[in-house]
Amino acid sequence: MTETSATALRVSALPKTAPTPFSLTPEAAELTGLAEMLDLKALRKVVFKGEIRPAGKRDWLLTGHLGATVVQPCSVTLAPVTTRIEEDVTRRFTPHLPDETSAESEEVEMPEDETLEKLGSHIDPAAVMAEALALSLPLYPRADGAEMDQQEFTEPGKTAMTDEDTKPLAGLADLLAARRNDGDDSDGSKS
Fold first, then answer.
1. 163 phi and psi, to 5 degrees?
2. In contact, 68 and 38? CB cutoff 8 Å
3. Model confidence pLDDT, tens digit, residues 48-82
4. What is the C-alpha to C-alpha distance for residues 63 and 58, in angstroms, rounded to an integer?
5. Cα-based distances in Å from 144 to 24, 40, 76, 83, 158
6. Is residue 56 exposed (0-12), middle (13-18) or buried (19+ Cβ within 10 Å)?
7. pLDDT given at position 162
8. Of 83-87, 141-145, 185-189, which one has max mean pLDDT?
9. From residue 138, how far is each of 4, 27, 78 by CA, in Å?
10. In the chain, which ranges are continuous DSSP H helix?
């Protein structure tokens, strides 16, 4: 038996003719737990508001807006980086996902529509909020002025390849300019 959270709404109890609004503002203990789960230094000002409404005969649509302030370690210096997230969220819950494989198969095909979710007995806005927050976090947060130093790795006795060496056309303009200058020095006659 799966455990449901206090914010989970039983699908069979949702009205089929009107939207069901929700508004989540996690308390300090919930924010701490969510920050730990997402490997954040801090999490503040989290608000997730929206509604769940019927979409067709058996589907349900959750729409909402997530606002949060996150503090992550800089990917270069590990200094704290504060980011404000404002994200519109949409999830469509359906009893049968397209191209759903049998329970015997180990491979699961991911639907092209990223908003699709498998409908269970409950819809939990807090679970959707946590997932949306995780997906909207900056992958490589950088503190102001943080730069990666150039790293050089090579075998002893050989010249290290630099970032500029990986750009084969970077010196093309200089070569063309030098060639034009060589042409200006000639007397104009061809041998």
1. -60, -40
2. no
3. 999 999 998 899 999 999 999 999 988 878 888 89
4. 17
5. 32, 18, 11, 12, 35
6. exposed
7. 67
8. 83-87
9. 29, 23, 14
10. 28-37, 125-136, 172-185
What residue type is 76 in one-letter code? V
User: Which candidate, 42, 40, 65, places its Cα nearest to that of 129?
Assistant: 65
Tokens of 91: 């999830």
Distances (CA, A) of 29 to 13, 15, 43, 83, 163: 29, 31, 11, 21, 46
pLDDT value, residue 30: 93
pLDDT at 146: 65
Distance separating alpha carbons of residues 60 and 47, to the nearest angstrom: 22
Number of residues that make up the chain: 191
Identity (one letter) of the amino acid at 178?
A
pLDDT reading at 1 higher than 50:
no
